[in-house]
Design brief:
With 257 residues, the chain is an alpha/beta fold. 25% of the residues lie in helices and 33% in strands. The protein has five helices and 14 strands. Helix 2 packs across helix 3 and helix 4 packs parallel to helix 5. It is elongated and about 60 Å long.
Amino acid sequence: MKQYVESEGSLIYYKCNNVDFAKGNGQLFTEFENGIATRQINIINNDMYISSSLKDWNENIGFLLYDGHVDSLDLSDSVPITRVEFESKWKKAALVDGNKSQINYLKGDASLPLEENTLIIHVVNILGLWGKGFVLSLSKQFPVAKKEYLKWSKDKDAFRLGEVQFVCLGQQKNTFIANMLAQKGVRKNYKDSTTYIDYDALRLCLKKVTRFSLINRLSIQMPKIGSGFAGGDWTEIEKIINEELIYYKIKCSVLEL
């Protein structure tokens, strides 16, 4: 089993004003991270189609995300643009697309990958305690998740709120676990109503999860993170998930037993 450490990577953006799509000519805006296409905006006849998945297809466009490396592209008809310009277009399209992109709520065990190319995310605490609840199911399925977390907890420089540890479960199926450091303590007993989730740290973690998911082309699944023994408000957590994951059109499932 191999541990992956999140890194920012370099983001570049290109715009092409003259692209031949399946049913006409239009504009193309693409975001690349470390040379890999992570998000794409396709515009034809004033209709905007956005995607961060190689599976997305539209009869007017074809496949909505380029599957390849930027070095393999002929960019002679393209111009570099800023992240601000790209994000402005994406935000506009995301508002229109809002009703189509949402969290998928399912019944089941979030520790069991639903499909290949999956990232299982959950919240861990800053005390170095594996604890109760979902982590018990997770470490029963994948003991390496607990092993790597305990090893990580001994590194006081890296073990900080807002950090994420990505653990590879299998190269063949491309599955990972994200241990997200967003919990300040652990519940003492059933009467303990303290909120131990750190919402700011959770947001930071999800930003890192987003970039990791985009560049590795992963779907995300999770339990109701932060709302159990961490004492968080699911309404607030759901809002953060929508802003940090769903906004980027990452397939996201929440599973409850």
